[in-house]
Amino acid sequence: MFSKATKAEKTTDASLSAAGDRKAPKPASLVSQDITLEGGIVGEGELHVDGVIRGDVRVGRLTLGDTGHIEGSVQAETVDIRGRIIGTVTAKQVRLYGTAYVDGDITHEQLSVETGAFFQGRSLKFQRPAPVALAAPEPEVQSA
């Protein structure tokens, strides 16, 4: 009734279904130190830049390494900057590390700046719409 083969098959099937439910993390795309890209980059994933990009970058998450350099606007959910950006940055969360150099406006929800980072521009906080309060109904005036 119970054999080793069926028991092994059952555990294999269970482990496959459990592993199939989880999504494997996607590796970050990399622009290495010896690469220069002319033109924009658009994607949903993570991008790590150690080289040079001359163009706009729109990704899910951007990590700019110490040798990374971007000339153009950056839009992402999260941006970690150790290198140099000449242009605007728009992200929910922005971190400027001690080696960062940013010349442009940063629009953000959260901004952290380490000692030693260079930032020239405006820090603009995302404007969340104000909650609309429901007005109380005015009492009716009865005339005599």
Low-confidence stretches: 8-19
**Global geometry:** elongated
The CA-CA distance between the termini, in Å, is 91 Å
Q: Care to count the β-strands?
A: 16
- Main β-sheet description: 10 strands, parallel
Order of helices and strands: HEEEEEEEEEEEEEEEE
Helical segment count: 1
Mean pLDDT comes to 83
The helical percent reads 10-25%
Q: Quote the beta fraction.
A: 35-45%
Q: SS-based structural class?
A: mainly beta
Keywords:
about 40% strand, 10-stranded parallel β-sheet, about 140 residues, mainly beta
Account of the 3D structure:
It is a single chain. By secondary structure, the protein is mainly β. 12% of the residues lie in helices and 41% in strands. The protein has one helix and 16 strands. The strands form two sheets. Strands 1, 3, 4, 6, 7, 9, 11, 13, 14 and 16 form a ten-stranded parallel sheet that branches. The termini are far apart.
How would you briefly describe this protein structure?
By secondary structure, this protein is mainly beta.
Structural topology:
Layout: H1 4-21, E1 29-31, E2 36-38, E3 41-42, E4 46-49, E5 52-54, E6 57-58, E7 61-64, E8 69-71, E9 74-81, E10 84-86, E11 89-96, E12 101-103, E13 106-108, E14 110-113, E15 118-120, E16 123-125
Parallel strand pairs: 1-4, 2-5, 3-6, 4-7, 5-8, 6-9, 7-9, 8-10, 9-11, 10-12, 11-13, 11-14, 12-15, 13-16
